[in-house]
């Protein structure tokens, strides 16, 4: 299991779970049945998880998103990697279960199981069933990213990506010493990309 930031396009398919006004007791054990349809033939390596929270203030509503396409937070995203990848064909159904149980370390033990069934030549009457699973302790993750993106001051404003380009000195050493191969520029170009 890894906590890290990744790009949204690595997700093969998405399963949304909407919960509204949960009581604390409902967070002690969370059972999520999974059901996806593979849009393409690929390998499924695991399940990615993140959350969005609405802080519904009396004056202002503010969303906090930990999604891959949002600015990185210290929660990152969670990748639960299966013990073996599951191979799927386009249109195959992927089912499973994500089961989270709270423990005394203010975190969760996580059990993940994912299954797919293939039909076709050589599959037999019941199809070919492929299952893979993993057990994880959310308190002991692998942190895959040490340099998170800066979080924007105002989440509801468009983000500006800063590109900084400048020439650098490149030196090579020959028998007579150092020789400057590229004259550095005295100014720095800064470009905002929206």
The helical percent reads under 10%
Q: How much of the sequence is in beta strands?
A: over 45%
Distance between the termini: 34 Å
Mean pLDDT: 70
CATH superfamily (homologous) name = Hnrnp arginine n-methyltransferase1
- Whole-number total of structural domains: 1
Q: Largest sheet, described in full?
A: 4 strands, mixed
Shape: globular
Low-confidence stretches: 150-194
Strand order of the largest sheet: 3-6-1-10
Which CATH first-tier class would you pick?
Mainly Beta
Number of contiguous helices: 0
CATH topology: Hnrnp arginine n-methyltransferase1
Number of DSSP-assigned strands: 14
- Helix/sheet category: mainly beta
Task: Tell me the series of helices and strands, N- to C-terminal.
Answer: EEEEEEEEEEEEEE
Subcellular location: Cytoplasm; Nucleus
GO molecular function: histone H3R2 methyltransferase activity; protein-arginine omega-N asymmetric methyltransferase activity
InterPro entries: Arg_MeTrfase, PRMT_dom, SAM-dependent_MTases_sf
Catalytic activity: L-arginyl-[protein] + 2 S-adenosyl-L-methionine = N(omega),N(omega)-dimethyl-L-arginyl-[protein] + 2 S-adenosyl-L-homocysteine + 2 H(+)
